[in-house]
UniProtKB/TrEMBL annotation:
One of its GO terms (molecular function) is N-acetyltransferase activity. PROSITE patterns: GNAT. InterPro entries: Acyl_CoA_acyltransferase, GNAT_dom, SNAT-like. PANTHER family: SEROTONIN N-ACETYLTRANSFERASE. Signal peptide: none annotated. This is GNAT family acetyltransferase. It comes from the Bacteria. It comes from Bifidobacterium tissieri.
């Protein structure tokens, strides 16, 4: 299931010969993260800059960022990173609560560093990099880390049209969740290790 090799370099970076690198986030990534989030989700569903800042302050090691070191930094997304262009990221908290609840999105204090479940709040890939394996790569990397940390698995919610995508990564559809986030129906999906 591992899509990236395990050649660790500084700061928990993982890279391949294709110029892509995965690393955890720092507060210096906030503007790029907020830009990608706004590009990937409608306003009612997107995390605000403040939400992302609060999450980064509490659990930066639960943000996985994929950069294209060969990507053109066009002055918009990822312009501030020495690692190249931010093209995809995944983030979420850990908790012993087995189901993803709407309150988790905005309350970073609910994070439990020893939690059994890695929640995934957002899977973001900028349009120019979609259908190139970026999201799968970051999710697999996050799953590998969660597994190595002894978590029971990962939980996310998605719209009906994304169920097959997550199923290919090993997630099981548990049906409609109780989430009303953004005013749309969500399916809860779980990857158990």
């Amino acid at each position: 299931m591992n899509d990236v090799n395990n050649d660790a370099v500084h700061n928990n970076d993982v890279k391949r010969d294709d110029g892509m690198i995965i690393r955890h986030a720092t507060m210096a990534d906030l503007d790029a993260l907020a830009g990608v989030e706004a590009e990937c989700f409608p306003p009612a569903e997107a995390a605000t800059r403040e939400d992302l800042r609060d999450r980064l302050a509490v659990y930066p090691d639960h943000f996985w960022l994929l950069f294209d070191r060969n990507g053109t930094v066009d002055g918009n997304i990822g312009a501030d990173s020495a690692d190249g262009r931010l093209v995809s990221f995944v983030n979420g908290m850990t908790t012993d609560t087995p189901d993803l609840a709407d309150g988790m999105y905005a309350d970073a204090s609910l994070h439990d560093d020893h939690g059994a479940w890695q929640m995934i709040f957002g899977v973001n890939t900028i349009p120019a990099y979609r259908r190139r394996g970026c999201a799968s790569r970051v999710i697999r990397h996050a799953a590998d880390e969660a597994r190595a940390q002894g978590r029971r698995g990962m939980v996310l919610t998605c719209k009906t049209g994304k169920i097959a995508f997550y199923a290919r990564l090993g997630f099981v559809d548990e049906g409609l969740s109780s989430s009303t986030h953004g005013g749309v129906p969500w399916h809860q999906m779980r990857l158990t290790f």
